[in-house]
Amino acid sequence: PATHVSGAGYAVAPAHPQPAAAVPAPRSPAANTGAGSGASGPYGTGGPRLAGLDVRGTSLALPVPRVDANDPNAGFLAGMMASAPAELIAALKTVPAASLETRLRELRASLEMNDLGGAQETLATLELKHPDDWRVVWYRGITSLVTGDNENAALSFDAVYDAFPGEPAPKLALGVCAEVLGQLDNAAEYYRLVWATDPSFVSAAFGLARVQVAAGDRGGAVGSLESVPEASIHYTAARVAAVRARLRDRAPEEPLITDLLAASAQVSGLAGLGLDAVRREQLSTEVLGTALDWVLSGSPAARPPAPPASGGAQGPGTLLGVELNERGLRFGLERSYRMLARLAEPGAERIELVERANRFRPRTWV
């Protein structure tokens, strides 16, 4: 049967999914309505997905619909906002009469506990009793994403998008669907649209950066992450991600000097913003390790430019307070690993960090 969504005076009926359903491209008055999600555009449709995307965690981090104030159990649910999922489910069993909102909360709690069977059973009950409610369709999309039915998730979120075209939440959800389906061009457009229209959705900036990195657009990814404002609670995380987007998986033969210097400046700046010592030193080892590989590659691009002469002396420049040459970088790596060892708990991890520090220590005569 077609999927109908009631709400805001809209009723939509998207088509049945095809064997390899594509996430509908973002629509706008200026869009070409004949354009699908083909291979055109800078990202194409079958590009590599960014490794490490936590689909379940990302799905459950999508916006949660507000509780209907007219629901008979709205007051009860307001008092359970901070409850753990298992505690919430136990409390819901004491409700004299279950309502739409209590069923939705039960469904979400089951998903958070990874009780997929319980979640699907609750969803089936909701679809039977409330087939036209947009919140049920929204949670069908969430459940489908968590269980790996990505094409059905895309259809569900597209139905909500049609019902509420001005809301950023369904666009963000469609961006996630497009990303997990490998439709990077569509994913980038959805994330970009959300981030441009509502900067409170910082997850859209991170999603856009993930897609850009997967498509090989490192500069675009760095720009997206660096566009997160300093006032955001996610500013530090975005800057850490920007450093990694600049340097991870880079070939040592590439001309890395600009990105190395920018990453060094960002790590130094993060120290002043309260980045904890462990993450700061871990990030330093990534920057210094990339720089060492770059210097050792022997590539013509791996020749650090000398800074302007001062008193007639020329030097190789510095990176995180050490000279930008093999000896200086080894000393820097040794220093960071020894600091990490001091911060680690006694045991195998500390021993491994000390051994790494010793391996990087340059040869000396004393």
CATH superfamily of the domain at 252-304 and 317-366: Tetratricopeptide repeat domain
Compute the number of helices.
16
Distance N to C terminus: 80 Å
Number of strands: 2
Q: What structural class do helix, strand and pairing data support?
A: mainly alpha
Description:
- This protein has 366 residues and is an all-alpha fold.
- It has a domain of 103 residues: Alpha Horseshoe (Serine Threonine Protein Phosphatase 5, Tetratricopeptide repeat), CATH 1.25.40.10.
- The chain contains 16 helices and 2 strands.
- Strands 1-2 form a two-stranded antiparallel sheet.
Keywords:
elongated, two-stranded antiparallel sheet, mainly alpha, 16 helices, 366 residues
Summarize the structure.
This protein is mainly α and 366 residues long.
List the helices and strands and how they pair.
Blueprint: H1 55-60, H2 74-78, H3 85-92, H4 100-112, H5 116-129, H6 134-147, H7 150-163, H8 168-180, H9 184-197, H10 202-214, H11 218-226, H12 235-247, H13 257-271, H14 277-296, E1 318-319, E2 322-323, H15 326-343, H16 348-360
Antiparallel strand pairs: 1-2
Helix pairs in contact: 3-4, 4-5, 4-6, 5-6, 6-7, 7-8, 8-9, 8-10, 9-10, 10-11, 11-12, 12-13, 12-14, 13-14, 14-15, 15-16
